[in-house]
Amino acid sequence: MTDVSSKGPGPGDDRPVLTNRQGHPIYDNQNQRTIGARGPATLENYHFLEKISHFDRERIPERVVHARGTTSYGFFEAYGSWGDEPIARYTRARLFQEAGKRTDVAVRFSTVIGGRDSSECARDPRGFAVKFYTEDGNWDLVGNDLAVFFIRDAVKFPDVIHALKPDPVTFRQDPNRIFDFMSQTPESLHMLVNLFSPRGIPAGYRHMQGFGVNTYRWVNAEGETRLVKYHWMPKQGVRSMTAADAARIQANDLGHATRDLREAIDRGEYPEWELLVQMMSDDEHPELDFDPLDDTKVWPEDVFPAKPVGRMVLDRNVSNQFAENEQISFGTGVLVDGLDFSDDKMLVGRTFSYSDTQRYRVGPNYLQLPVNQAKNAQVRTNQRDGLMTYHVDTGGENPHVNYEPSITGGLREAEYPTHDEQGPEIVGRITRKRIPRTDDYTQPGQRYLLMEEWERDDLVENLTTMLSECVRPIQERMVWHLLLAEDDLGLRVGEGLGITPDDVKHLEPLAGQDLTEEDQARLANLG
Ligand code: HEM
Fold it and tell me: What are the residue boundaries of the Catalase core domain, all occurrences included (predicted)?
């Protein structure tokens, strides 16, 4: 038998030579170093030990949510105005100012609950995270494909995710655990009505909407603030799948959405989305029956029209999944001047969570990785050292000065663009209270009524199928909620489960539930 290691490069083989990471050429990549052809092996076998021990560390912890995803690159192009109205009137963020101005972007689409190799056909929200590499530093808009979320306070996030993830004993996703939590969390109803409709399984990443979900602020040059919500609309149109479509695709391909996106970009069919913004004055809006800081609500578009601010095109695939998709790190704290947070209690909690998990998952210097760097802005910090420091981002005149203030060089603070603080003054008592105006039923009911008939049928079937695996008390409480949202929805799901309004009328409201007068009237009429 020929010993391939002894072959060496043949004449005319001008491929580059394999080395180790010290730059040493590898003469034999087929055989370990041993004493005699039959061993034993020696311990100073540097190439073998480096190769195996690096392999042993090839995986980093996967994202605790949104583990399966895919990243692509492209650009965002601003429109600069709404008709005659310059966008500068509302935000001073430089990326939005001039018509035609382009900003590089990286976008990661994902599913939420499954692991890195799970099916992309799952009924699950889809992540829609956009990193804008602006001249003022990075801006991350970390959204989902559905406009609302399950909960409105970040303190409940680990609970909702635990309920949706596999059972810790059996490692199976379990409808009883999911609906146990949801039935005790009526704010989840609006999300459930979306998730169990055909929208719960997008046909692919090119055919889904994106929503910032949480409420943010825009700030103009005068320091005036407004509340905003962001929406992405696909030029390719919105397409979804039924559970039967999904089962068919999943039987052959767990990664159809990633494949579809990559192949479309390879073919030069660049997907495109328009970014729209809804806006309202920065106050509590007592005239509304919901709170503008509640992410379980949408803002009615007839009152707060969604206005286009630019378009995004994806035209390049990543060249390495690990470096550019696994290690890319988004966060809701990553904002540029002219864009700000609101007091949305989910947003505040998210903002801590993202960079916290990335320091753990990727490492403390995750922002030095090429895909995460603010590549179109100057980065100059006094942060030093730590695991995997890639370079020193000094920039001061004196590299000895890694502190501030100093009179011997080093970095100085920037001037405030206008005001040091912006937005309304807040006076209050420290407390732990849910926001008023929770109204958990009106919008899910309206959403149901807005659906086309086939979508309603699909929603009823999906809910009934999953709830039929749950124990009776959970089924009854879910039917109770659905009846409060919309009679027809509650009656139809109830019928599928063999539960009538009479069967659930004895149920009391949940502890602390904030029912509107309309809810109470519905409750009185159950049965
Ligand atoms: C990913 C936390 C709510 C969208 C993540 C990750 C964490 C997290 C820890 C993993 C990040 C990583 O490893 O890099 C939270 C918390 C939430 C919350 C604590 C609520 C308090 C939401 C909501 C949305 C959302 C409401 C949608 C608007 C995303 C997306 C990703 C993600 C798109 C994936 C980002 C990527 O592709 O790398 N979230 N999340 N999350 N989250 Fe959230």
Answer: 19-412
